[in-house]
Amino acid sequence: MHGTKILTEADRLMTVCNSCRYCEGLCAVFPAMEMRRSFSDGDLNYLANLCHACGACYTDCQFSPPHEFDVNVPRTLAIARAESYAAYAWPRACAGLFEHNGVAISLSAALSVAVFIFGFAVFNDPKALHRVHTGPGAFYALMPHNAMAALFSAAFLYAIAALAMGARAFWRDIGEPVSMRSDVPSLWQAIRDTGNLRYLDGGGVGCFNEDERPTDRRKIYHHLTFYGFLLCFAATCVATLYHYLLAREAPYPWWDLPVVLGTLGGIGLLIGPAGLLAAKWQRDPALADAERTGMDTAFILMLLLTSATGMALLLLRDTAAMGPLLALHLGVVFALFITMPYGKFVHGIYRFVALVRYARERQMIAGSSLRDASE
Amino acid sequence: MVDFNRKYDVLVIGGGNAALCAAISARRSGASVLVLEGAPKFYRGGNTRHTRNMRCAHDAATEILTGPYSEEEFWEDLLRVTGGETDEELARLMIKESKDVLNWIVEQGVRWQPSLGGTLSLGRTNSFFLGGGRAMLNALYLTAERLGVEILYDAEVMDLEIDNGMFLSAVLKQGDGGVQARASTMVAAAGGFEANIEWLKQYWGEAADNFLIRGTPYNRGAILKMLLANGVQEVGDPTQCHAVAIDARAPKFDGGIITRHDSVVFGIVVNKNAMRFYDEGEDIWPKRYAIWGRLVAAQPDQIAYILFDKTVVTSFMPTLFPPIGAGSIAELASELKLDPAALVNTVTEFNAAVQPGTFDHTILDDCRTEGVMPPKTHWARKIETPPYYAYPVRPGITFTYLGTRVNRQARMLMKGGKPSANMFAAGEIMAGNVLGKGYAAGIGMTIGSVFGRIAGQEAARNATN
Q: Are residues B173 and B231 in the same domain?
């Protein structure tokens, strides 16, 4: 017996798939499945988060609908995955946020913008918002750097803590007794598999999205998004170091490292999410978890908004629009941070953790086989 | 849209591996090609949907094959499984061509599964399709479409217009009437008649009602029947087919690979009278599974039960349907609706006959019985640790061997031996030329790809000359 309806269905499918195994060369899910003969809730949550939703096993399956065996692994695991996010949420009271994530994101974004505008007004005179500020420290005419840093550090640390607690809950649920840190080779393998999206490729030809024609589009857009995000994050880190170590205050000239990193990342974070959104709209409904597309869409939109407002700020920072744009940008980033643990962002964390486990399992089981699979 | 006013160079009837290889090779040879697939798009490809691998000769180990498999060795394997019932000229041609097909099929977009570093034991003789047979088909269809092959689904051929061995047109069902598809040449690659129970009954009698068909309900042999009725020479024994023991709880059609049982060697097999009827330890994989379909077909009510105990439950692949279990042999018999006393007796007799030995299911080991009929000549171990389990099995028909005789060009031969002017055949519809009986893993796909490619080239040459 399983805890939820979708896990019961996932168990049924894994029983079908485990007696077939044609898909074992496509990704990590099926080899992981083959290491088991029965599936606990934790096993199924692990497999669900190992799945990258490339769609190949659906397109290649002789038993997918309309066949009476009704094998639809990508959609079933997508739903199980989304439910697992809620199950691991910290604090538990926030689990419900996943259900309403689209709404939650919008509300918190609005709220965050309000907080910032309010914050500016409190720390400075309201007119400062409309004046033109230039040169080092211009941003802090609106809001003192320390206040800004304190606010963001709090939001950021909260997000990190909540994500870490979620990852811990997942690690325990999938039954890993040992600490992740003690297994460097598996960790390194998972970092590589995450970094090149090894399993978002349909076993080599590309992802299946709108039809049976595989393409690399989703992988490319995901790379742009992921590395764009990392570059933007790096830009922020460098700027922080500049501020505290070198006492150099933002805004920086266009050729300086934080701006170059931020601009490159921002471009990736414009094209990537836009492409992912387009792919999402074109996706074959048979593959999608239709009820939860709101969560995905909201997260992608937040990333897009982060970049769009950041780029607008860069372009218009010497004008009177700087004040409102800065408020908007910081509001969006703030909202992104505080909703991270309760939205699509967590997929990256859980998938990474699942990949670590997969790397461990591969090491332990390498070489065992029960059969000649030919006919 | 397909233009029925047009006369195509090559008409391919069928939509599986053989048909697509024929269509692609004809198109690559410069011919215009129309493919008529009788099934809806999802079920396209007949038995190819359910396949997984192909047997090709090769001179050296590759990334996907662990060692060489010479033409001679392939030929000896074929000779052994068919008991010599094969056309040597065609068989040797197929084996020779299979070497090249191993690479040619990759050029058509099909991908082989690389070694996974241990989880899959890759073979020496057979190459596995990455993602299985439907993935292979999808790749062939994409390539065919890209090359400009026209493909029609739900295209049921009602009649073939053939004049003295010369194909003129096929009549397709369209609404209440029919529409003619004309072509200079025709390749028949429409499979066997395994899904046509009425036809099977002609040879098997009422027993055929208890057969389960492993592939789609669309393999009804309509094209084969029309060709034979139009003077094409037939080949093969109509009762011969590739059949395996599959779970009796499987659906009537299209249960595919996952209903197959490969646990026979780990226990004993009894019929509805709770009696053993064949040496369960006769041979090693893959021959061991290929004979059990026919063996079960010969038993009363075409049902049998694979019996084993707790000790071997994890010795074989997990199964789609769970085994039926009970705490004692008598209880298990009740669950299976067999006579408990008879089953207890059979198991007791068997256990008493088991000789000491060292079990190894990967070789013909020395665990055997003595003094019981039939004997179990290898892998015989006592069934004595509860709980006891059973899988009910029935004959699962994969494909039939009755077909059209062809020559080296895959050109059909008419009764009397004259080659047809413009008709070719490939795949299961002509498998009987090579497979008189028996089966070797992956050989159905070899027949399809090799003769499909030849048929396409020859049909294109015939049409454009």
A: yes
CA angle, residues A73, A76, A81, in degrees to nearest 5: 115
Query: Looking at the 3D structure of chain B, how many domains does it have?
Result: 2
Tell me how close the Cα of A273 comes to any Cα of chain B, in angstroms.
Answer: 29
CA dihedral sign, ordered B100, B60, B16, B113: negative
Tell me, what's the pLDDT at B285? 58
What is the residue-averaged pLDDT of chain A? 89
State how far the Cα of B125 lies from the Cα of B142, in Å rounded to an integer.
27
Pairing between β-strand B419-425 and β-strand B177-188 as defined by DSSP bridges = parallel
CATH of the domain at B264: 3.90.700.10
- CB-CB under 8 Å, B256 with A20: yes
Residue A306 scores a pLDDT above 90:
yes
Domain assignment of residue B271, yes or no: yes
- Residue B369 tokens read as 């019985």
Is position B288 within any domain?
A: yes
Q: Is the ipTM of this complex over 0.90?
A: yes
Domain shared by B63 and B118, yes or no: yes
Beta-carbon separation of A60 and B138 below 8 A: yes
A31–B442 CB contact, under 8 Å: no
- Is the pLDDT at A127 greater than 80, yes or no? no
Q: Do B256 and A62 touch (CB under 8 A)?
A: yes
Report pLDDT for B116.
55
What pLDDT digit, counting tens, does each position of B207-262 carry? 999 999 999 999 999 999 999 999 999 999 999 999 999 999 999 999 999 999 98
Model pTM score: 0.94
Indicate if B283 and B208 belong to the same structural domain. Answer: no
Q: Is the pLDDT of residue B49 over 90?
A: yes
- Residue B1 inside a domain? The answer is no
Q: Is residue B113 part of a domain?
A: yes
Please tell me the predicted confidence (pLDDT) of residue A143: 79
- The 3 state secondary structure assigned to chain A is CCCCHHHHHHHHHHHHHHCCCHHHHCCCHHHHHHCCCCCCHHHHHHHHHHCCCCCHHHHHCCCCCCCCCCCCHHHHHHHHHHHHHHHCCCCHHHHHHHCCHHHHHHHHHHHHHHHHHHHHHHHCCHHHHCCCCCCCCHHHHCCCHHHHHHHHHHHHHHHHHHHHHHHHHHHHHCCCCCCHHHCHHHHHHHHHHHHCCCCCCHHHCCECCCCCCCECHHHHHHHHHHHHHHHHHHHHHHHHHHHHHHCCCCCCCCCCHHHHHHHHHHHHHHHHHHHHHHHHHHCCHHHCCHHHHHHHHHHHHHHHHHHHHHHHHHHCCCCCCHHHHHHHHHHHHHHHHHHHHHCCCHHHHHHHHHHHHHHHHHHHHCCCCCCCCCC
Question: CB-CB: which of A63, A213, A370 is closest to B316?
Answer: A370
Q: Among residues B396, B418, B440, which one ends one of the domains?
A: B396
Q: Identify whether residues B386 and B443 lie together within a single domain.
A: no
Comparing CB atoms, the residue among A16, A26, A37 nearest residue B131 is A26
**Domain range enclosing B387:** 243-396
- Of B344, B375, B396, the domain-final residue: B396
